[in-house]
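Schema walkthrough. Field components (list of strings):
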Amino acid sequence: MEWWTDFYVEGSKHELAKVREIVEGGETNLYRAINLFQLWELTHKRQYEDGPGTLFYVKQEFKYADSFFPTGKPILTSTFLGGKMLKLPSYSKKHLGRFILDYLEHEGLAVDTIVELSAGWGRFLFDLYFNGSPSDIALISGEVSSEARQITEVLCDLDPAIPITAHDFDFYRPNLDFLKDTDSVLFFTHMAVMFIPELQREAILKMANSAKRVRCIHFEPVGFQVLAGQYMAAKMQGVVAGFKGFNQNLITLLEELHNENLITVRGLFKDIIVDVDRTHAISVVIWEGGSG
Amino acid sequence: MAARTDLWVDYYNKGFEREPDLMDDVLKDAGGNAFRAMIIYSDKLGRYERHVEYGERDGQVVIERYELIERGPGKKVPNSPTGLPVFGEASIIGEITRISTYMELSCQIPLFLVDYLMEHESIEAVVELSSGAGEKLIGLYYLGSPRDIRLYGAESSHFARQINRRFVEADKGFDVSIHPFDLRQPDLSFVEENGHVLYFTSWSIMFVQNIGPDVFRSMVASADRVTGIHFELCGFQIAAVDFPVSRIQESEVNSKGWNINLCQRRSESSPLRRPDCPAVGEVKLCRL
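Field assembly_structure (string):
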């Protein structure tokens, strides 16, 4: 089922038009361009009018909120984290760049390449760079949508020093040939595997064998797949994942590959990063592979 | 009363005095890029604890010893992939709630202000009073504040102004006009725009135990139309919404000699007696 892929690929066309509008409108500073685009994202959402091919963006109405900032945004959104209700203030931002840099430092890991798979326009790769990822680490986006890759390129053209490149990558037909002469690579995915109902072994194995040393961090809303701690919020996540056709097998697949000694699962942290969507509390799964 | 305020001013001045030493490393790590520099600077500061010891001399409270102590990932925290705690705590609209370490709240004020500026096109200048090293102003510019709005930083610490200037020098397209300013002896004559000016403070009035009327009079007199936005720890001063957690805030504020009068002593007709939303002044923003 590639419905979700089509949904995001179609959305990328609108996003590319918006980014071009910002840049062609005279914005020459990369960071301002990204942040102006993100401000637009904050206030708009994707919506289908009548099935595939009719996607458009509408202004968010925030009609379920009961109190607002003087800017018209809701003061708080109710969501869940670790199974408990949490109120998330508007204007807070997810900081995966900081997480990844802290993780590398904490583990004492040296990598020459960081790859985000299904990276969209590369939000978290830019976040990594802004947060101080050393300039000699190559930051690579693997992304199926050519429009999303074009957004990355349009943005990177604003700052020649930025070490980000975008390459074609599809989880349904995984090909990592763009990783050449890579010794030590860190992969990560953020809310990407969730849109692949059943992830194939081949995708993980290609990643695991793409370099001498491989580490991968999945940031995915798959806490419901972890049997321990089946609190109400996890059950709700499972129900929504079921009727929306989200991923059902990431945890069991990684467990299977671990038991076959093809990868080593190093950690599973259930529901530790919050998302605005109350059914999207993010779990973190870390595994290790490598041909070396 | 004044001695406690002086102590806090001294505390921050002493902190900024040591921070220019970090800037060479910060700008080097950032490859001379001001936005990266600002984020790396905030992260570096987050990795330091200000360790301070107070004493008493001639009946005045004084700082005896001040040190920056590095901390950060390295200590093992159970069940944490990065060495930092997975969850923290904050209070929002009277409730104590858990927060996620990697949900960044420190960008809230600049993002809020950019969003506000987009909806209020008449504003010609934004002035931050007690702007420190200028992180909010830098955030404001890079988060997309319209380029034709002039940004001012007003700060009492010479060292903080020096750090702010180094950020500004790192990016030719970025400009903040930086001036000496003390909330206790306000002089806003440096503000050149006189149409519509937005002033804001964040965690600065909180360190002045009793803020005098002069600072507000100066703001109001500085332009034809003035908007003030205060992001301050003053929820406990709003009697109309009295949460149990507000009493904890009040007790902490009293023990530290922080501000007690920003929202108080208003007349019966004052809009501050009945806030538009109970969250105003009560949302506690945390950088973890």
